[in-house]
Design goal:
Blueprint (H helix, E strand, L loop, with lengths): L10 H10 L1 H11 L10 E3 L18 E5 L2 E8 L6 H14 L14 E7 L10 E4 L14 E6 L1
Parallel strand pairs: 3-4, 4-6
Antiparallel strand pairs: 1-2, 2-3, 5-6
Helix pairs in contact: 1-2
């Protein structure tokens, strides 16, 4: 049997599928974020364009960026562990979180920003396939803000 050259682990195919069928993406996001599908009133893919490069080449905008009920959501798939994935995820979060703030704007108006990373490697030493991170005080475990959330799915 011939091995498939491209699978849905390929970020180009991944994005093509979900941009072409946004209802599938909406259902996936609903499940991943534990949001009832019917409660999603606003669902917009903010970067539906596809890169013109050939399959297999690297392009920096293959993530799927969305607005889900006024929250910014970034979904990406990562196959290779390049040793810097947490930093990469935080960089993407920071760019998305701060992108709407205009000069003189109010910080309180910055959007809830969620990063969902589907990764094809074990980032964490645990049995669970889903890890969720939020900024917590290390002793009291007091939540600093609901505006920073990371989901990693191994």
């Amino acid at each position: 049997m011939k091995k498939l050259e491209y699978t849905f682990k390929n970020d180009t195919l991944f994005k093509m599928l979900f941009v072409r069928y946004p209802n599938l993406l909406k259902q996936l996001v609903s499940e991943l974020l534990s949001i009832r599908l019917e409660s999603i009133e606003k669902f917009v893919i903010t970067n539906p364009e596809m890169p013109p490069e050939a399959m297999g080449s690297k392009f920096c905008r293959l993530d799927i960026n969305m607005i889900v009920n006024s929250r910014r959501v970034n979904l990406e798939i990562q196959v290779q562990n390049e040793g810097d994935f947490p930093e990469r995820a935080m960089f993407h979060w920071a760019k998305i979180y701060s992108s709407d703030l205009k000069k003189g704007g109010k910080y309180i108006k910055l959007p809830h920003t969620i990063i969902i990373s589907i990764i094809n490697f074990n980032q964490f030493d645990c049995k669970e396939f889903h890890s969720e991170f939020k900024p917590l005080e290390t002793t009291r475990h007091e939540l600093l803000s609901e505006k920073m959330i990371f989901h990693f799915l191994n």
